[in-house]
Structures are given as structure tokens and as C-alpha cells.
Prior knowledge:
With about 120 residues, this protein is α/β, with parallel strands linked by helices. The protein is built from five helices and five strands; from the N terminus they run E-H-E-H-H-E-H-E-H-E. The chain has one domain: DsrEFH-like (Hypothetical Protein Ychn, Chain: A). Helix 1 runs parallel beside helix 3 (about 65-75).
Amino acid sequence: MARQLVIKVTAGAEAPERCNQAFNVAAAAIVSGVGVSLWLTGESSWFALPGRAEEFKLAEAAPLEDLLAAVLAGGRVTLCTQCAARRGITLDDVIDGIRIAGAPTFVEEITHEGVQALVY
Length: 120
């Protein structure tokens, strides 16, 4: 059975270490051959928009835009439906390759055998 990791990141620029850690773990998992689904929720929702990851800075950390690009290239990135709606973000606004989906899809992903879920 293929290994799968679902990561929900709720933190954004207001909690930079927690935010960056989620993206870093996601990118490291991809490099390790683990399937990754990264969910952007809460304040991390803003990173679904072009240019927002480039604005994020954290000393001694890999650039967030590079981590996001790695996850987009090797895994899946999802923006929470309600989080997007609360921020006025639509599918037309997001980076190519990011989908918008809600709690039923999240629950479906995390309830499969062999899936590990992390929340940051």
C-alpha cells in the first residue's frame, strides 16, 4: 500500500514557524516518496494566491514559494471551500493546480487505510 500524508495548515504569516513547518514537512515527504495532500485553511488560505508565498519570509527556512512549488509538482494542494469564501477567494484567483474543496473531501482523504494526518 502506498503511503499517504494529509497535512492541514491553519497558520499563516501570524505564526510563521508553524506555517513554514507544515510546508517543509510536506515537501520533505514528497522527496521521500510519500504521497502528499496539503490543505490550506485559515490564514494559510492566502498562500493559494499568486505572489503571496513569495512575500513570506522566515530566517533560516527554505523559501515558502519553493516549498509550495515542490508540493504542487509532486502532490496535491487544496484550499478549504469555507476559508476561501470568507476571504473572497475564487477558483479564478488561485495558483494553477490548486483546487478548492471542503470538509467532506478532507474527511474522505484522511479516512483511508494507510493515511496519516497532521494539523499545523
